[in-house]
Amino acid sequence: MDNHYFQSDPQLNSALKKVNQLINQRIKVNNQDLQVALKKMASKGGKYLRPAFCLTFAQFGSNNNWKSPQLIKIASSLEILHMATLIHDDVIDDSPERRGEESIQAAFGKDTAVYSGDLLFTVFFDLLVETMENSPYLATNAQAMRKILAGELGQMNQRYRQQSLLEYYRNINGKTATLFSLAAQEGAYFGGADSRTVHLAKHIGQNIGITFQILDDILDYKTDGGLNKPILEDLSTGVYSLPLLLVLKDYQEELMPYLAKKRTMTYKDTLKVQELVNRYGGVAKAHELAGKFTNKALQLIDELPINGTQKLLKRVTTQLLDRSM
Amino acid sequence: MDNHYFQSDPQLNSALKKVNQLINQRIKVNNQDLQVALKKMASKGGKYLRPAFCLTFAQFGSNNNWKSPQLIKIASSLEILHMATLIHDDVIDDSPERRGEESIQAAFGKDTAVYSGDLLFTVFFDLLVETMENSPYLATNAQAMRKILAGELGQMNQRYRQQSLLEYYRNINGKTATLFSLAAQEGAYFGGADSRTVHLAKHIGQNIGITFQILDDILDYKTDGGLNKPILEDLSTGVYSLPLLLVLKDYQEELMPYLAKKRTMTYKDTLKVQELVNRYGGVAKAHELAGKFTNKALQLIDELPINGTQKLLKRVTTQLLDRSM
Closest approach of chain B CAs to the CA of A266, in angstroms? Predict the structure, then answer.
């Protein structure tokens, strides 16, 4: 498993390998083709960012936590939930690709993709029951799952509409930031950190998550593609993300002729919109905003207890958020 | 809400109304059309069989349980899980109809249907967390959800294949009987029944569930349709159910010419298969088997503690399993 963000930390790498092993054990299905596909998806390309954050934050606790079976399970649960939502997202978007491979829905049909996602939800649930039964985090996880879905549904609701920045933030907060926030918070909590640290972790995770999504949205307007996603994917499915939203108000006249076509927008139209969004500074402004959230995260990280882990965390965060540059 | 199975029991009816109210409160989504659709699905046509079994079995416990908020929540969780799987099933089957209404996926697209099902899963989790945190039933529910999905995946795996009777039973045990078994078992347990009764409940529910599914499969071969399902739906999607499986071995030559066409089977072909299955006694044999499971259920019911509830339960069971006649 190639996870170059953390190559320099052998303990984290070793823990992530355990996460990978556990996930592979748990995603057993009575369907051979599907099992091969799920295993491929689990091990290739996914950077295990959420488990990594979870495990890293655990180091702010009182124990040496890299090997804790409970933490490995909790970290795995985050990745499992993430995989489940990805698989279902692909059904929605009709995505042919995910993580450089044919998506499960393209290879096996929507049928199998829907049920595979559902299966992963049960695995997620199993892991929660095994690790969090007598803690408030069972409810927190249930709530997180709901927020993620509400974020996705909210985004769907706003397709081909000029949503407000508030609605945009609300949706990305749900669909992306929630999981990073949960990862950090859970890691700190179950690692034995004090409540101030757990609280900080929650907000650090949230800020990182928001930045992560904004950078992902910016990628959609970059001319060099990358990261295994076809460019302009959001735009072509009616998802008006930050770079566009930031210039839409001031440049209604120039942009609306294309956007008003909605589903009949051609690829050429999307390229034109991409050009305009860049020209009008939408990408630059979005980068600026992403920078603000990054700085907020880094400030909060500075408030964490000082130990070797803080350096690792800063390094991880900076690398993750520079991914597009 | 029309639930004519239990019209004669005002306390059960009253409890089911509370279940309906709770479900309506919980299925809130930030999408108005969808909310209307979910509410419609929740209140119209669904007979609330699973909640009814749950609440009825609770009466074998030591308390007067018709009004217990905890039991209302548990009963609701069963119906919510059932709804979630129905919505996802419809995405798979491309069903235009469910419960006499346009299915969610036909009305709003696969997108919304996938996410709505996911949303209901989160509501299901929420209810479990609220009611079962310190009991073994959290794990039991997680396990039940997995069995249901494994049953569906198993059935998908066997499409257009001559599955064995064992595989058939395994799949219907997972996808249908599990939930009835869980409903009965949970009802008894949280109603405060003794462990012998809980154990009996589990097996009564399972037998009823198997019968229920067999009768549903038989309906597919009946010439009068009914129950809001287009006839021959299973066959046309490659699901070879009991009536067909029971005659397939002995009448390979006559049946395979049609079945071998698989996805290219015409409606006329399915009508022919239906005719042959009836002629060769597949429907009659299936009825016979259903009768065996029904009798088993009734025998076990006779072993329950004697009280007024036993009569209600027998009446409910007999009515439910006569639904096709």
Answer: 22
Q: Which amino acid is at B159?
A: R
Chain B residue numbers with beta carbons less than 8 Å from the beta carbon of A31 are 153-154, 156-157
Question: Tens digits of per-residue pLDDT, A185-197?
Answer: 999 999 999 999 9
Q: What's the whole-model pTM score?
A: 0.89
Whether the complex's predicted ipTM surpasses the cut of 0.95: no
Of the options 3.30.450.20, 2.60.120.10, 1.10.600.10, 2.60.40.1120, the CATH number for the domain spanning A10-226+235-322: 1.10.600.10
Chain A CB within 8 Å of residue B243 CB: no
Question: Where is mean pLDDT largest: A48-57, A308-317, B7-16?
Answer: A48-57
Q: Which of A142-156, B104-118, B165-179 has the least mean pLDDT?
A: B104-118
B142 closest CB neighbour out of A29, A111, A126: A126
